[in-house]
Amino acid sequence: MSGKESKKYLLLSIISIFIILILLSGCVDLTCAYVKNSTIKDGWYENTALRNTGTQFLGMEKWCSITYEINGKYPASLTVTTLKAIVLADEKDIQKKTRQTIEETFSNNIDLSENISGERIIKKSHKTLYIIYDGLDKNKNETVRIIGEVWNCASSGTSIICIGVAYITNNDIQNVYNLDNWQKIIKDQKGTINGSYGEDGLIYNICCH
Asked: Going by fewer Cβ within 10 Å, which terminus of the chain is more open, N or C?
């Protein structure tokens, strides 16, 4: 086979694989992970205006996100993003990208310092990887905590990325740390993170399959 024929064969092979991948991408159906409805209470709600979905890499990767919030003196939010591709991503890579996302998103307004990282088991029996930051809002001079938590769900073929943010101080209420909304985001039945016990934690009750 001449060099010219070899290049032509290689090009045809690449095009064939490309077409197959495009055809396969149509089979990438996605159901967005969400927090169990009975857990959304005590002032928490889904901000439907922030629902988002999209595709990338010519439709071979789909994603969607749902955001839950609570307002008041100590506002907090949790965004749950579901990602589905033909092949599941490595969890360590997802955690690295989540760390980068948190630092790039918040560093302009919040002084961040990494606190702890680890693993835990959530209600759906998935082992997750989490990282927690302490932060100071430079504009409000108020303290925040941020969690990034990820896992792969083999049952649905999806990767789940959670980013939760909670203000734990308020300048109008001096010398008071209010951890209620932070604990609502992170708690589980074993008190894995910060000793926060309870079966109604938001991330703990995410339904992904």
From this structure: N
